[in-house]
Here is the input.
Amino acid sequence: MTKHLRIKAGGVSILLFALAAMAGVQTAYAHEKWFTNAQDYPLRFDLMFRPVPLAFIGAVLIATAVGAWLWRLRGGRDFVPGPKFFGATPERLAALYSLVPLILGIHIAVPLLVNGVQGKLFSPDVTLQPGFSNFLGLGETFIALALFYGAFTRLAALGLAALWVVGLLVVGLQSMLDNIFYLGFAGFFFLAGRGPISVDRLALPRLEPPAHLMRYAVPALRIGLGLSLTFVAFTEKFANLPLAQAFLQEYPLNFTQALGIPLPNEIFILMAGSVELLIGLWLAFGIFPREIVLLALVPINLTLTIFNWTELIGHLPIYGAMSVILIYVFNQETEAIWVKGLREGPLGIHTPATQSIGAQQPLAGTVRIAREEGA
Here is the structure.
């Protein structure tokens, strides 16, 4: 039994070490389209269906299958400890979870607002044509403000999802698949609301979501982010090698020569795409989410000092989503704490019955006392 466990632990260690090594050679140019004109580089699936790219994709699929098996073998438990290990009590954890919708609201509102006022849809590379399409930018602005203040949040979430669907007709499928994580955010806010610190909680309590939906909010966020990274791995690397190569020509970020192991640009691109694809698939399927987020946070931040504000603002939603996944444990106990954090506390959600009792009893008591004193 002990020997069997050691073998499994050794296999996990080798797998995680391999992932770390792959992440170490990936540069964070996950969005070449933000800095290179992608219209000059249509998708080239013919280049993807060659032995070397297919070998990289196959290796990622095998690693995903092995990771899923190990995840199931461990009963859905991460190796990296969560907040509970460091002494967080359920009450403190509920208080932390109550702040999550506020934090995510800020992280998604900023890029929506910036892109909206600049006539972009969701990302810097998706430019809206003058005319009717610019109303989509206005829609982004209103949705950003609604999510920032937490007013009519669930309606804003539906508007965000509708904006994504309209984008399919206006700018095309590829751009919207790259930005499908916005659908994940829309799902999150529709299912969870904007939490206790919001206009909704104070003035529009009837717009709060029911408790049974709140437990699905973080999984929706995780799946949306995972799908987005998965699609980008293909649209910017595996199925668009010319785009990635043009990007490297303009921004020579292939640093493998400095490490003494010079790799051709194409191999470097395929390795970067493999890491991105692996991270996306593992997030989408919920395989060791905490470990995969820690691996992803390194390459996704490597070029912040090169691409500055464009990359920082564009990645804000990803930072927010990954931070939530990092502190969240996907099990029934945590789901209960999550719902408790969103619904209870000083600004808790009250049912109509509770509201009527709480509102009528003090008033009735005050009137009775006043009559007695008057008598």
About this structure: DSSP finds 17 helices and no strands in the chain. The chain has one domain: 10-349. Confidence is low (pLDDT under 50) at residues 1-30, 352-375.
